[in-house]
């Protein structure tokens, strides 16, 4: 099995997990998901690990779902792969701080995972996009829950409803990332920050604060919000807009989405 995710334990108790499909801009698939979350769980159980850093190999952080995977779902009439899976908000349940070092393209489910980390640093010029609406999909996997918590509803609706590309500098203005760093300095900046936290901060305090902050956010719980969006996701994956969204991307042409059907808003 290929190493779709790399693991390294740095000095000071910082574990670095690197998405390792650089030829695909680290596009998300089932094996990336499994290996990443397995390593995260390994870090939770390792007392030598105090802080976790997630980054990407090559030019991208994670460019979203692998298009081959999306094509397969469309061909199966919206059926995703079977078998047990961890929830995509798994990172929120981890009692250790998780920092994303966003080195390049951050889109779709890759952006979901970045938003589920606790602190985010981005390379100058890194591109962000939710992308879902341009693939005939909804704000999937908890994005509709986490994004408004980070940047508010107005900015969230902007980037979700437009699906537009924006850069790390604008992401920082929104509050989406904590700092923007020159690309060559991103990992050293992130590791210095993480080591300071690992050496000087109480692990029990870190765990409690993380639980307090995420647990006390108002509104639906992430479990309930994601469960609701999963129902919408099932419908969108089986819909014609999803197949057209993927096809138009692969064929490099504007999408030809069907008009909204009458009665959609009331579920008729």
β-strand number: 10
Largest sheet: 6 strands, mixed
Radius of gyration: 18 Å
Which structural category do the helix and sheet elements fall into? alpha/beta
The CATH top-level class label: Alpha Beta
How large is the share of residues in beta strands? Answer: 15-25%
Average pLDDT reading: 85
N-to-C terminal Cα separation, in Å?
47 Å
SSE order, one letter for each helix or strand: EEHEEHEEHEEHHEHEHHHH
Our count of domains comes out at: 1
The CATH architecture would be Alpha-Beta Complex
Order the strands across the largest sheet as they lie in space.
Answer: 1-2-3-5-7-10
From the spread of the alpha carbons, the general shape counts as globular
CATH superfamily (homologous) name: 2-enoyl-CoA Hydratase, Chain A, domain 1
Would you write up a description of this structure?
This protein is of the alpha/beta class. It has a single domain, classed as 2-enoyl-CoA Hydratase, Chain A, domain 1. The protein has ten helices and ten strands. Helix 1 (30-45) links the parallel strand 2 and strand 3. The longest helix is centred in the N-terminal third of the chain and has 16 residues, at 30-45.
Key attributes of the depicted protein:
single chain; 2-enoyl-CoA Hydratase, Chain A, domain 1; four-stranded mixed beta sheet; 268 residues; globular; alpha/beta; six-stranded mixed beta sheet; 10 helices; 10 strands; disordered C terminus
